[in-house]
């Protein structure tokens, strides 16, 4: 299991960007992102990761410069195009996908019984720090607020509590002040149920 923490923040984005740079981090990626999720399964009682794995995601994104102004064109990508729904497997091959427009993919999903469940918009801002095998990601998410996400590939396979403790320790070393019992916000569960929902693993 890989643990990811995703905490909701209470200050403005620029406060945290300045904090990161004061701790010798480097801004390595900025983008504006729109993610649209389609599913044909019930998402009731699923964890955050189970919801992600139950949906096809269509991503529209474009790169931003340091000042968060556009510096590239919008691009589309598709994720999780192999899904199992009860006894039925749905799959679009890369060869077929490359010959289809975005609208054709959406029409095929609808024909196969998929319905749009989420339409999310956010910024995605990554900072890299020496010794951290994973970027610290800031995401101002429309209708939710500012979140910070972090995982570290070095910790995959460690016991759950040990992974989570190490992640929180590393975040606190760069200026945060999270306690070990603080829960992260589950973005998709929050959208699905219409109220803020929390858990101890945003990848779980």
Question: How would you describe this protein?
Answer:
- The protein has 204 residues and is α+β, with helices and mostly antiparallel strands.
- Helices cover 25% and strands 34% of the residues.
- The protein has helices at residues 13-22, 48-53, 94-98, 102-111, 160-173, 187-193, and strands at 5-8, 26-39, 56-63, 75-79, 82-85, 88-91, 115-128, 136-141, 145-150, 184-185, 198-199.
- The strands form three sheets. The protein has a seven-stranded antiparallel β-sheet with strand order 1-9-8-7-2-3-4. A two-stranded antiparallel ribbon has the order 5-6. Strands 10-11 form a two-stranded antiparallel sheet.
- A hairpin with a 3-residue loop joins β8 (136-141) and β9 (145-150).
- The longest helix is centred in the last third of the chain and has 14 residues, at 160-173.
- The chain is globular.
- It starts with a strand and ends in a 5-residue tail after the last strand.
- Please bin the fraction of helical residues: 25-40%
For the largest beta-sheet, the strand count, sense and barrel status come to: 7 strands, antiparallel
Helical element count? 6
Rg, Å, rounded: 18 Å
Q: Spans of 5+ residues with little confidence (pLDDT < 50)?
A: none
Number of strands: 11
End-to-end distance? 8 Å
Shape: globular
Q: What is the string of helix and strand elements? A: EHEHEEEEHHEEEHEHE
DSSP strand content: 25-35%
Strand-pairing-aware structural class? alpha+beta
- Average pLDDT for all residues: 93
The side-by-side strand order for the widest beta sheet comes to: 1-9-8-7-2-3-4
